[in-house]
Write a structure and sequence with these properties.
Layout (H helix, E strand, L loop, with lengths): L3 H15 L3 E6 L5 E3 L2 E2 L6 H7 L7 E4 L8 E5 L4 H7 L4 H9 L3 E4 L3 H9 L4 E4 L5 H15 L11 E4 L1 H9 L3 H24 L6 H14 L4 E2 L4 E4 L20 E6 L1 E3 L2 E2 L2 E6 L6 H19 L8 H17 L7 H6 L26 E2 L2 E2 L7 E4 L2 E3 L14 E3 L2 E5 L4 E3 L8 H9 L8
Parallel strand pairs: 1-7, 5-6, 7-8
Antiparallel strand pairs: 1-4, 2-3, 4-5, 9-12, 10-11, 11-14, 12-13, 15-16, 17-20, 18-19, 20-21
Helix pairs in contact: 5-6, 8-9, 8-13, 10-11
The chain binds glycine (GLY) and manganese (II) ion (MN) (2 copies).
The site of one manganese (II) ion has 5 residues, from loops.
Length: about 450
């Protein structure tokens, strides 16, 4: 749980960055329709959740540095017993102030009257520019209300700044409470991955493994996934965003499962690849160990002071050397890396920031250079190999897809693997899949 004081600290830091001449406006997410009368489960926009913790749709937060009457104003739905009978309780205007730290709160119906008066006098307006064209239009409607009054002494903003540029840098550096939540999310997902390994057997469907994963996470308190679960058996593992999860799992195949729960709006993102029947074939083990070596080399580079690209470069080097050894590539390692000869077999990057969004926010480059890793940043390390059914690939390796993904916190002296509780060495995977009560012996 994120303490109220943390939300206050986040807002204070943003208010400080905005400065006395600025003002920030941030919208909540909207509820979205799935089909006809059915809505998607509501998920608050991560930026809004980060700054307010307010869980309802359509709200609007305004941050106004140095305003005497209060620096944090929230517009939200007022209480409405009739609507609440149908849709569940609302926090309401009073609740926004008492439970979410708003200095003032107003009903959404009053935005068009009140917001222009808050904007008046500020020369810089920060908001998420260009994310939602309807919201952009509303912002300029409010600004134009102020412009219309300049002859009476009103001052309208003349500078518009993308709020993401400062807010996302804040989100990139995780606090103690955020790290605790992410550690727990990763532990729950790790437990679910172990469960899936234990119960997997030939003849099950990919969907059955997906279900086992979600059941374990939900029972541990994490109802939602951070992203759609990927369960790819056999050649389906070579499709990077395979989510059909509809095929049967065959004896002798590998299965790749990329799944992570979300806990209180914080994501985990873990991939494991293991044999459906609990035993790697020699070719599967050989290729798997290559990906594992690449992952370990990359994790070694996930240290404070290293640059963002170093883990990726380390993984690419190990994979390229391995592809030469397997006879899939030929030539000099450095030339092959320069020519990106590995790309037909390893076509994605080695990781991404992880946080409230699975592909979390924060710049990867600063001043034209890959940024330096710092304590408190969380990233994934997820190299893979996806070998097609072509003559370039020796027969036993064809259509094998392998990815190994862990969640890594950069610490003062190195890193902490948040997802360490799920095994990844082939011997450890085989041991887990053998010593359990859920699968019958082969
Ligand atoms: N599961 C999304 C990713 O690994 O990036
Ligand atoms: Mn990932
Ligand atoms: Mn993933």
């Amino acid at each position: 749980m994120i303490p109220a004081a943390d939300y206050q600290r986040r807002r204070r830091a943003l208010l400080h960055r905005i400065g006395a001449t600025g003002l920030a406006i941030l919208p909540a997410a909207h509820a979205t329709t799935r089909n006809r009368d059915v809505q998607h489960p509501f998920r608050q926009h991560s930026d809004f959740s980060y700054l307010t913790g307010f869980p309802e749709p359509d709200a609007l937060a305004v941050l106004i540095p140095k305003r005497k009457e209060g620096e944090f104003v929230l517009f939200c739905q007022p209480r409405d017993p009739e609507r609440e009978q149908w849709d569940g309780s609302r926090c309401g205007i009073e609740g926004a102030m008492t439970h979410f730290g708003a200095d003032q709160a107003h009903p959404l119906s009053e935005i068009d009257t009140i917001l222009p008066t808050l904007i008046d006098g500020k020369t810089q307006l920060y908001f998420p520019i260009g994310n939602d064209s309807l919201f952009d239009q509303r912002v300029f409607f409010w600004v134009n209300q102020v412009r219309d009054k300049v002859r009476t002494g009103a001052v309208a903003p003349n500078t518009f700044i993308h709020l993401d540029s400062i807010l996302h840098e804040q989100r990139l550096h995780k606090t103690k409470a955020e790290i605790a939540l992410m550690r727990r999310a990763a532990q729950i997902s790790a437990q679910a991955h172990c469960h899936v390994m234990r119960c997997c057997k030939p003849g099950m469907t990919e969907l059955a493994l997906e279900t086992e994963f979600h059941h374990t996470c939900a029972n541990a308190g994490a109802r939602f996934n951070a992203y759609p679960t990927i369960v790819g058996g056999g050649k389906n593992a070579c499709i990077l965003h395979y989510t059909a999860n509809s095929a049967l799992l065959h004896d002798g195949d590998l299965v790749l499962i990329d799944a992570g729960c979300e806990l209180q709006d914080y994501a985990s993102d873990i991939t494991r690849t293991f044999p459906v029947n609990g035993r790697f074939t020699p070719a599967q083990r050989e290729l798997y160990l290559l990906v594992l070596r690449a992952q370990l080399a990359a994790i070694d580079c996930a240290q404070p002071g290293k640059r963002w690209n170093e883990p990726h470069d380390a993984a690419v080097r190990v994979l390229t050397k391995g592809l030469i050894r397997l006879g899939i590539l030929s030539g000099k390692v450095n030339t092959l890396i320069k020519e990106e000869a590995y790309k037909p077999y390893y076509m994605h990057r080695t990781g991404h920031w992880l946080g409230m969004d699975v592909h979390d926010v924060g710049a990867y480059k600063q001043d034209g250079e890959w940024r330096i890793l710092e304590p408190g940043m969380v990233l994934t390390i997820e190299p893979g190999l996806y070998l097609p059914n072509t003559d370039a690939v020796p027969e036993p390796y064809r259509q094998l897809g392998i990815r190994i993904e862990d969640d890594i916190l950069i610490t003062k002296h190195g890193n902490e693997m948040l997802s360490a509780a799920v095994p990844k060495h082939p011997d450890a995977i085989e041991a887990l899949m053998t010593n359990h009560s859920l699968r019958t012996a082969p």
